[in-house]
Amino acid sequence: MVENEIMLEKSARIHRLDKSNADFFMKNGFLAMTYKDGEEEKTLDRVFLHRAFPFELLWKYISVISDDGKEKGVIFDIEDFSEDAAALIKTELERKYYSPTIKSINSLKERYGFSYWRVTLTDGRNVNFTMQDTFRNIIRLGDYGAILLDVDGNRFVIKSISSLDRKSYRRIELYL
Amino acid sequence: MFRKEKKRDLQIGLYEEIKKILPDASPEMALCAFRFNLDKEEPEKRRNGYLYADRQSIRVITDGELTLTIETGCVSEIKTYNGVGCIYISYVDKRDSTEKLICRSDMSSSKRIINALKKLNHYVEDGRVSFASSDGEDGLDRCEKCGRPYPPGSNICVHCADKKKIVKRLWNVASSYKGFIISSIVLFFVVSVLNLAVPYINKIIVDDYIQSKNPEGVSLFPFVIAILSMLFTQLLVRGISMVRSHLLINASNGLIVDLRKMLYDKIQKLSIAKISKRTSGDLMNRVSNDTSQVQNFLVNYLPNVLEQLILFIAVGSVILVYDYKLFILVMIPTPIVIVSFNFFWKFVMRMYRRRWQCSAESNAVLHDIFSGIRVVKAFGMEHRETERYDKAARNERDITEKADCIWSILMPVLQFLMGFGEFIILYYVGSSILGNTGMTYGEMAMFSSYVGLIYGPLRMIAGIPRHMMRFLTSTGKIFEILDEELEISDREESVSHAIKGDIDINNISFGYESGTEVLKKIDLHIKSGEFIGLVGKSGTGKSTLINLIMRMYDVEEGSILVDGIDIRDYSQESLRSQIGVVLQETFLFSGSIYQNIAYSKPSATREEIIAVSKLAGCHEFIIKLPDGYNTKVGEKGYSLSGGERQRVAIARALLHNPRILILDEATASLDTETEKQIQDAIANLSANRTTIAIAHRLSTLRNATRLVVLDNGRIAEIGTHDELLEKQGIYYGLVMAQREMSKMEQ
């Protein structure tokens, strides 16, 4: 199995990035990278990080793409980097994948195909948002969590549905 | 009017906030102003921020402090980048060409930000100030009244729409059926009155004849008359009901056909831009489901409700006139019935919606398995798929069981409640009779019937708001399409003339969405009879350019002239009837191959059809089909391969014999040999007609007089094949890449 994985990795020419061949730093507010291209060391002033499995693996399999849209490599695990670089990658990912966490659902009404949510977030804010085609826009995260996509493109996370209070659970239950 | 006021209020609010920190800020001088709400560095941190830009500087206020000032003259471009759930705004510094982050916001205001940045971008790119709004508030896609978003592709808020106005408009559309509708309403009254008469006659029969105080004085004849009058009343009720239904069905069917026709006509006239805002499912829903919903309400629900309502009022009045105490007693359970019925309905609907969802899921699993049965079998996954379906079916079973169980418990309770009034009558009237207060057995029977009549309508009345809402929403959605403004419409003095084929594209810019220009300042002049090849990577705007020439969309800036006349001055029919198109994705209508080819020229002779088919290279395979040119294609028809469909579509375009021929990846799905045949056919046909062809396979364009290379929405290179190769630019790169590919394939 492991051999098969290595073969696949080689044949698909996945360029694995780790601390031996790449490093990250901030420049002009963006994540920048130095990497080895053969013997030569090159710098990219801005790189884009894309999670390959954003619903399952938050810190693994992260594609690093340059400004011209070309993949420079894949971070298999942010732990393959130094503590500082890993922290930068983590912050950059959290900044790009902005999804506040829902603590409780205070009200949920549905009318004409829209559902209107009033929730409290973990940072204490009360937020109203609207969802359309609610069933389809609630994505289950494994057995426990869920992501809610609103009509504007905002994302809200429920880390564990079972740990919601009873009222909140009853409100969302219909859609699960 | 209200929209404008609201916009002004929002604008004033925005600038008031900005002015607290930047006193010189003003809407008149602004190139751009918007709010943002996230910290640019810390992922989760919220900010209360504003960006204000004028010709001198771009300034950023964060939490009440000026945190960044950039000289507008030092900016070469403003960029936006969509994260996931957030948007970044950055600028490119002219001095060192580096991109620098300005601010970040969540998606709630992303559309407004993009709109607001438009004017600023125009200014930094070429120093001109456009008339676009600087504050982006005109990008409102929410209801001004309640702040809720509009349904996609719609600008009617289902919560705030003026319901009375909607009904009034439907009444106007129904003007030709007013006679039918008014007569049927009158008949409703008649039926209700007659229904009321039946228990009264019954009372007379009981009191005056069956339980008469003076049995000796009763003669048979008036008794028979009373029985017959009851029979006659019943017959009259049935007869009038039949006439009334007939009238209503006529009126509603006519109205629905009219509405559907109006909708269909309107959709045909709408521009591609407007149509593509909505899914085809949504449009079909409006034409078929929403009109059916209106019809169902008018034919089935409204008459019933009207009848029951009239009955309710009439019976109530009769009881009130007879005995006000009895009336009060009868009315006591009414609110309980209405409230409990509504509560029960909501609860049951919730359950059944869950059941519907589960059923939809298990159906989806089935659909998935059946359509992918070859894959399932090929990978030996039958067992896994069976388990998957089993799980979905078990889910559905559990929820159905629960829903049915609740239904079977709650329904009898509700029915008991609804029949409760009869017990009150029995008690009240019974005790009156026993107490010798003058109440008769006939009156008791009459009141019992009346109470039976009064509780029936309550169920209906409880459902009125729900049904009304559905009806009004559907009607609103129908009028929304009918009210849609035509973006592309013929001018009053539009011309229809035989096109020669000169095309002048003068400095056009265009984008499908605000803020993103797909084509930028395209300037291209094509002479009649030229064969132009459009080349470039995917997403560079080739198909968009073709769409603009066909006037599927109107250009935002610049103009397109055909034979020196702006295409907006042509009648759409005249312009498009002289342009032939073969697209990459061919669409064949349900019908025979013959009908599909003849679509572009219904008067074509059989010889013409065969001739163009031979030219297009489809005759050979059509003739071998058992039904030849009569073979049915499209849905439920013979399935043609991609290449075969393409050739039929080419034949259709060739039969059209257009002055301007457009080929959008027309030969992409053909093998090299067939492509060559079609190329030769096209070469013959394109003589003396203007041809514009898009192709990724560059060999397709070998006959082109000129090649136009598009890159990032702009014309990067123009010239013949040899000239461009010599230039060693983008085209050269593409040719070399394809040569490499074909070498590898060999």
Spell out the key features of this protein:
heterodimer; A: about 180 residues; alpha+beta; 4-stranded mixed beta sheet; 3-stranded antiparallel beta sheet; 4 helices; B: about 750 residues; PH-domain like; ABC transporter transmembrane region fold; Rossmann fold; 6-stranded mixed beta sheet; 4-stranded antiparallel beta sheet; 22 helices; disordered N terminus
How would you describe this protein?
The complex is a heterodimer of chains A (176) and B (746). By secondary structure, chain A is of the alpha+beta class. Chain A has 2 domains: 95 residues; 72 residues, no CATH class. Helix content of chain A is 20%, strand content 44%. In chain A, the strands form 4 sheets. A 4-stranded mixed sheet of chain A has the order 1-7-6-5, with helices on one face. A 3-stranded antiparallel sheet of chain A has the order 2-3-4, covered by helices on one side. In chain A, strand 2 and strand 3 form a beta hairpin. Chain A starts with a helix and ends with a helix. With 746 residues, chain B is of the alpha+beta class. Chain B folds into 3 domains: 138 residues, Pleckstrin-homology domain (PH domain)/Phosphotyrosine-binding domain (PTB) (PH-domain like); 261 residues, Up-down Bundle (ABC transporter transmembrane region fold), CATH 1.20.1560.10; 243 residues, P-loop containing nucleotide triphosphate hydrolases (Rossmann fold), CATH 3.40.50. In chain B, 56% of the residues lie in helices and 15% in strands. Chain B contains 22 helices and 19 strands. In chain B, a hairpin with a 2-residue loop joins strand 3 and strand 4. In chain B, 30% of the residues are buried. Classes of the chains: A alpha+beta (176), B alpha+beta (746). At the A-B interface, helix 2 of A face strand 7 and helix 9 of B.
